[in-house]
Design brief:
The complex is a heterodimer. Helix content of chain A is 45%, strand content 0%. Chain A contains seven helices and no strands. In chain B, strands 1, 2, 3, 8, 9, 10, 11 and 21 form an eight-stranded mixed β-sheet that branches. In chain B, strand 14 and strand 15 (320-325) form a beta hairpin. Classes of the chains: A mainly alpha, B alpha/beta.
Chain lengths: 214, 510
């Protein structure tokens, strides 16, 4: 009986350590659970802290929202693997602590300096599997950061506005998920002149990435 | 052939099970399949071209790299090999890889073709045999060297570095018309300059009467004895893969061009078809890619210029090809070392940075393709052979050398055990002196070959040099799986040339 009680207490503690205390999100998410949102936000902030050479931080870039959209598009099996990766890094410090005071906490509950140290440990590990985990996480967070238009504008990498010419194929198939009636182009559109000037820094930024008007 | 005989059917067009009858069914609309479908249709054959993915009009292009790959690539762009873990991407869309590649067209070098002929008992795959087919494809697609006007500074710096060192280099020949140097090849060309199959060969096949079934997944090749009868499968919803109505295509000739990964899985799912040699799914090879990021004093503005505009074939015989590279910024930034403010500092140098890559002809590194226990996705096992590692380190060293010769301030090689930043060629000597392990590299391998290799001896290969299966006379395989070894250069043009030749042979024989 006492063994069962002990097991129950340990299970309760484990549950509290792993799953309790994450803030409830203010809105609906497509895929991510509260613990994953907290983890990604923490990982993004540790990877791209405030200040430095690029003003927006990982937190400013709302990396969790991007990750949520991206995960939604992945096949189920791949999505599960990615979420497992989040779980692994978030809770690894419950087994191998982060350096410093109170290192036995979930990644998202660590101090920023500890989070950075933990990520550096994954990055420079002599075990390739750990480095791969880091590389995968860093890739996700980085792609989310670079989806933030102010980051791209700051680096001169925001996509440019391009007027897409109509070609014969556009008369053959409609947008994905639509029927043939959604083909709006006609043969007359094929005769429209094409833009030929090479793009350069003077080409206007694509409206989706342009700075909003004040 | 009447102008309106052909058509492209999309997911919304299917509401019930259906049967098609054709003289030839082609599975896969990538470079090889599209060429075969067009050539057969042009020869007056009734052709059905079947593609699992949907057509992507430009309104569907995503400018963000990861979001784009999640829609246009199999397994969301996150497919990887086991063994030596390496990402590898295969497209799932009308036009296949041509929609999302950088349009590089290179003829396989003479020494490669000679080796193929000698080692694999091939008699008609010499330069002289293939050149007319390269020419025909090149003419149709307008393959031409990238002009300086759209090179952009990051490509021209590569040329300057090669010139300074006396290494040969050349503008890359591409299947584009009217490129504006947007560097967006990997997410779909909004300028409609890239002559991907969906806007070139497929429309022309349709013009000649081909019927194109998109969002239609072939699940089995039907056979009776030693004769293929056609294919059957399910309609699948774009992106989700949700199965819909069943279909069957009865055809006198079956052409598989589903790609080096999918074709062997399809053959195995069809009862281990065409596999008396035991070579189906074996011999998987890649061109593993490695890359450097070099930072220059001058502003490079890497966003502008052809995605891959310059190359050096100088070291082909040593096992690698060097080329310039651009990709969506988020994808390239993944390679940047470091974390925190240090990482931000490095990323802030992006306007002064270039990325150059090398692909290795790693013929000792082999693997296999197997069917997973469910579905049609492959299980890929591949190992980077220890003896192929020097090819990659040598390639990285040469890229670094070229970068410093062009005036780079620093280079990041992205190899475990090498300093994050190399500040001089002396620093880069570590790449020559130290012995590296396959696990030290971050590689990517999007050129895959050999899983249904051609061989003159039926006991050692799956198809003959015309792509005809040794076991089944009216079943052809035309994707890069038929290459007997790595071609040492980007495979698209060779694949199309071989498909062009095979289509002519099919037209003549059947």
């Amino acid at each position: 009986m006492s063994a069962w009680l002990l097991l129950g207490v340990l299970a309760g503690i484990a549950w509290l350590r792993i799953g309790w205390g994450y803030p409830r999100p203010a809105r609906e998410w497509l895929v991510l659970a509260p613990r994953e949102i907290a983890f990604i936000q923490a990982a993004a902030s540790a990877t791209f802290p405030p200040g430095g050479a690029i003003p927006p931080s990982g937190a400013d870039a709302d990396v969790p929202a991007y990750t949520d959209r991206w995960l939604r598009r992945l096949p189920t099996r791949t999505r599960r693997l990615i979420r497992l990766l989040f779980f692994l890094v978030e809770h690894a410090t419950l087994v191998i602590p982060a350096p410093g005071w109170r290192g036995f906490r979930r990644f998202s509950s660590l101090l920023p300096g500890q989070q950075a140290a933990v990520l550096e440990g994954w990055r420079t590990s002599r075990f390739r599997a750990r480095r791969l985990v880091f590389a995968s996480l860093r890739a996700i967070v980085t792609m989310g950061y670079f989806a933030h238009p102010p980051v791209l504008r700051r680096l001169g990498l925001a996509p440019r506005a391009i007027r897409t010419p109509v070609c014969e194929a556009d008369l053959l198939f409609p947008p994905i998920g639509r029927g043939r009636e959604a083909i709006t182009h006609t043969r007359a559109d094929l005769a429209r002149p094409r833009e030929t000037t090479p793009l350069d820094a003077t080409t206007p930024i694509d409206p989706r990435y342009a700075e909003p008007a004040p | 052939m009447s102008a309106d005989a052909g058509e492209v059917r999309v997911h919304a067009d299917y509401d019930a099970d259906f049967v098609e009858t054709a003289e030839a069914v082609v599975v896969g609309s990538g470079p090889a399949g599209a060429v075969a479908a067009r050539e057969l249709a042009r020869a007056g054959r009734r052709v059905v071209l079947v593609e699992e993915g949907p057509p992507f009009p430009p309104s569907e292009f995503e400018l963000d790299g990861a979001l784009s790959m999640a829609r246009t690539m199999r397994e969301g762009g996150l497919r990887a090999t086991l063994g030596t873990v390496m990402p590898t991407m295969q497209a799932i869309c009308l036009g296949g890889g041509s929609l999302v590649n950088s349009a590089i067209c290179v003829r396989s070098p003479d020494f490669v073709l000679d080796e193929w002929c000698e080692r694999y008992a091939l008699k008609q795959t010499t330069r002289a045999d293939l050149d007319p087919h390269y020419d025909a494809v090149g003419q149709f697609l307008g393959i031409a060297a990238t002009p300086d006007a759209v090179q952009g500074r990051r490509n021209l710096l590569f040329r300057e570095g090669c010139d300074a060192l006396g290494y040969s280099s050349e503008p890359i020949a591409r299947n584009v018309r009217g490129c504006r140097g947007s560097g967006e090849c990997f997410t779909g060309c909004r300028s409609r300059a890239k002559q991907s199959m969906d806007i070139s060969y497929v429309p022309d096949a349709v013009r000649h009467g081909a019927r194109v079934l998109t969002s239609a997944r072939v699940e089995r090749v039907r056979v009776a004895g030693r004769r293929a009868l056609g294919v059957e499968g399910r309609v699948v919803a774009p992106f989700t893969g949700r199965p819909g109505p069943r279909f069957r295509v009865n055809a006198g000739v079956v052409v598989l061009a589903a790609g080096c990964m999918a074709t062997p899985v399809l053959l195995r799912r069809s009862g281990n078809l065409a596999n008396r040699s035991g070579q189906v799914g074996e011999n998987l090879r890649f061109h593993p890619g490695v890359a450097i990021t070099a930072v220059f004093e001058e502003r490079v503005d890497p966003l502008f210029g052809a995605t891959q505009g310059y190359q050096s074939l100088h070291f082909l015989r040593e096992g690698f090809k060097l080329e310039t590279l651009w990709a969506p910024p988020g994808v390239l930034a993944v390679r940047m070392p470091g974390s925190g403010l240090e990482l931000k500092e490095r990323l802030a140098r992006a306007p002064h940075s270039v990325v150059w890559d090398a692909i290795g002809s790693c013929n000792r590194s082999t693997g296999s393709v197997r069917a997973r226990w469910r579905g049609l996705d492959p299980k890929l096992i591949w190992h980077l052979h220890r003896d192929d590692v020097p090819i990659l380190t040598h390639a990285l060293y040469r890229l670094t050398e070229i970068a410093f010769a062009a005036g780079a301030r620093s280079v990041a090689a992205g190899v475990h055990g090498v300093p994050d930043e190399l500040r001089s060629l002396d620093d880069a000597q570590i790449l020559r002196k130290r012995e590296f392990h396959p696990a030290d590299f971050v590689t990517g391998g999007n050129h895959a070959f050999c899983t249904t290799r051609m061989h003159g001896d039926p006991a050692q290969g799956v198809v003959d040099e015309l792509g005809r299966c040794h076991d089944i006379g009216n079943l052809y395989i035309l994707d890069t799986g038929v290459f007997p070894q790595c071609p040492s250069v980007n495979p698209m043009w060779t694949s199309m040339a071989l498909a062009h030749r095979s289509a002519q042979a099919i037209g003549a024989e059947h």
